[in-house]
Structures are given as structure tokens and as C-alpha cells.
Amino acid sequence: MSALVCVARIGAAHGVRGAVKLWTFTEDPFAIRRYGPLLSKDGKRQFEVAQAREAKGHLVATFKGVTTRDEAERLNGIELYVPREKLPATDEGEYYHTDLIGLAAVTTDGEPLGRVVAIQNFGAGDIIEIAPPKEATKGPTLLLPFSNAVVPEVDIAGGRVVIALPREIEGENEDDSPSASRPGESRDP
Fold this sequence. Notes:
The chain contains 2 helices and 13 strands, in the order ββββββαβαββββββ. It is mostly beta strands. The strands form 3 sheets. Strands 11-10-9-8-13-12 form a 6-stranded mixed β-sheet, with no helix packed on it. The protein has a 5-stranded antiparallel β-sheet with strand order 5-6-2-1-7. Mean pLDDT is 86; it is low at 176-189.
């Protein structure tokens, strides 16, 4: 089976007839109906959307075979997946996270940085997470903005991303402290 991509998460039961809140991760929330059966993460369970309507920030949906509130409550929290090949092609400069996971990360000079392990978004934009190379001692992952400035090249066919490491933000040192200069006195940069 090809890589699975998470397209939705089932929320709380809605009403008494088996409906659930459905949080979709697709550009068009109703696209989940076009992908065919939706799968659980392990691929062992299938879900087919019978009906869906828009609600505030989510869908209210029913699944075939789910007709009671009790059945709907047992589905709460299940993430729904589809095989990668069922998703539409991406535009230039757009990627599915699953296509990036596992790619080698190298600097603009070709030095290995590690492997892409995740694309995160904590609310301020996408962040690429890179684990250090296996040869390196175990260490923390590197978290960088997933922007054109920091990731100028994504080569899925070549299996790598190129990273332009940003300059570190230097902390204050004694020369930068307010007591290091008097008002009106300039300091060399």
C-alpha cells in the first residue's frame, strides 16, 4: 500500500442519529467524499461518508453503518486517511507533507544536515523539522521556517531538500548592554 495521507479527524457525536463533527484538512472540505473509502491510520477500518453538511469551522457528517449516538461517540478522535495517489497533483512549489518526510536535508554547500522528519505548524507558518544524521550523536532536531528563503530547493525526485541556514540571532553580550555606552555615544557595529 502507498503512503497514507491524513485528510480528516472525527470529532464528537452530533445529535442522536449517528452524526459526528468532522474536521477536514483539505482545501475543499467536501473533497473527502471524492477520495472513496477513508481509512483508519492502520488501514484496517474503512469509513464511507453517507452525508455531510457544512457547520461553523467543520462538517457534520454521517458514515454508512453508523446510525446511533453511541456508535458515533466511539469514533471520536479517529484520524481518516487516503492513499497518496488518490490526492490531486500539487502545483509548482506545493507539496504534501508525506512527500517531504524522509528526504535528505543538505546545506547549500552540500553538507548533510540529516533527514526531514516532520512539517509542523504551531500557528505562525510551516516549520520543517530535521533530525540529525544517524552518524551524529543523538541530538535535538533542527526546526526551521519552511520558506523559500530557508528551503530554496525541494527535489523530491532526487530525494533531498536544500537548506540555507539562517544566521543565528546573537544574544546580548557585555558590549551590547545599555551600560556599555553612554547616551549620545555611538558604538561600532
